[in-house]
Every structure is written in structure tokens, then in C-alpha cells.
Amino acid sequence: MVKHLLEYTQATESNLQYSLLLVLGLLLTEVVRSWSLALTWALNYRTGVRLRGAILTMAFKKILKLKNIKEKSLGELINICSNDGQRMFEAAAVGSLLAGGPVVAILGMIYNVIILGPTGFLGSAVFILFYPTMMFVSRLTAYFRRKCVAATDDRVQKMNEVLTYIKFIKMYAWVKAFSQSVQKIREEERRILEKAGYFQSITVGVAPIVVVIASVVTFSVHMTLGFDLTAAQAFTVVTVFNSMTFALKVTPFSVKSLSEASVAVDRFKVSDSLPLLCVRSCPWHNSLLPVL
């Protein structure tokens, strides 16, 4: 629609019906795009809420039936219910948007080739080459996430110990020692989060620059090879690149949420392997008695 609209503005003859059809088509396209995006977010959030509720329900039922927690600490179980459940919600809400990135890139590449010819591959190649970078960042995100989860579990466990034995800590004047221990764990957790934030900010900052790089490379090579470039072609290609940018911008967040969700799934699997409290029915009563 953008290409036909620009070509019509350069034409010498005017046609009222054709111009109104172009404007109406552009309006309908934008309305469909907006409604489709809103529907996608609504479905993703509904799925995320259902997934989080189901997983937390499963975790609570499992914890209520535990015979012992083995090497697991109480703080780790609390962290699983509060933190990892939220990671699963984010994966369902944002992670699914990653699947649309390659589809949009392929469709944009095909349309650019139709408009510019073989040089249309160059701009799309810049977008496609950005995805391996996202895969590398996802591995780093998962690594930092595992370290951060371990530090968070230690901090929660230490705080539970302080709250449980607060009378003894006050009596023996161990407040300073425990506060230094908690502060040390918090500083380690903060350093890990800062490193993860640096990598995340780099990927978020690079995404808008990719459009400029792709446009410059495509138009420079196209003009260098002696091909003609009209305003309608140039603005249409830039519009396609901007459409591809949305899929590129959500890629860092999708990769981050999926990486964190993979760590959360592993923690749920470990907690699911804990021994349950066996129960048996009492022959002289309808209630169930626990067997320790």
C-alpha cells in the first residue's frame, strides 16, 4: 500500500476513487495490524496466567505432601513458588513472540527482492545475522540466571534463619555477623544482576540500529551496482525494515524469558523428585492417617 501510495503522489494524473481506495486500504491494514497485536497479547497473557496458576497449584500440593525436603532449604522452596512461577508467566506471555521473528524476516526478504531485485537480500541478511547474537545472549542470560537463583536462595535461607532464631541472635549479640553475611550475599546477587543487565541493554540498544545499518547497506550497494532507486522503492523498503524491527525488538525479551523459564523448569523438576508423605486409610475410620 505504501508503494502504490507513493507512486500515485508522483503521477501527473489524479483519480479520486483510486486515491480513496489507497487511503482506505492503508487504514484497514493498520486497523488489522493493531487488532491482531492486541489479540496476541490478550491470548498470551491469558495463557501465562493459566500456566502460572497451574504450576503454583502443583507446587503447593507437592509441598503439602512432602515427607522431608532433603538438601532443599525452605528459602529455596519459597523462591520456587514466588519467583519461578513468575518466570513461567513471562515465558508464556512474551516467549511465543520469538516464533514470529523468522517468519517476518523471510516475508520481508521476499518482498524486498521483489521491489529491488537481488540487492534486497542484503538488508534482510543483516536482520537474519542478528539472530545468532540473540542465541549467544540467551546462553549468557541462562548462565547468569542460574547464578542469581543460587544467590537468591542463599539470601532467603539466611533471612529465614535470622527470623527463626532472632532471640538467640539478640542474646548472643550476633546481629552484626548475620547482617554482614546477608549483605555479602546481597552484593553478590547485585553483581550478577548488573552483568545480566549489561548484556540485556546491549541487545536492546542494538535493535534500533539494525534498521539503519540494513538501509544504508542495501541502498549503497544498490546504487553502486548501477541500479535505479526511486523514492517509492526507498520508502517502501524502509517501511518493510521498520515492520521487521518489531520482531527484532521483542527478540531480546523473548530470549531472556525463555532462558529464565528453562532454569525455572529444571528447578520444578528437582522439587518434584522430593519424597512424598505416604498415607493409608484407617480400617476403623474413613479419614486418612499419615505414615511417617
From TrEMBL:
GO molecular function: ABC-type transporter activity; ATP binding
Entry-linked PROSITE patterns: ABC_TM1F (PS50929)
UniProt source species: Marmota monax (Woodchuck)
InterPro entries documented for this protein: ABC1_TM_dom, ABC1_TM_sf, ABC_transporter_C-like
Top-level taxon of the source organism: Eukaryota
Every ABC transmembrane type-1 domain range: 1-260
One GO cellular component term: membrane
TM region(s), chain numbering: 20-43, 92-114, 120-137, 196-217, 229-248
Protein name listed in UniProt: ABC transmembrane type-1 domain-containing protein
One Pfam family from the record: ABC_membrane
Record keywords: ATP-binding, Membrane, Nucleotide-binding, Transmembrane, Transmembrane helix, Transport
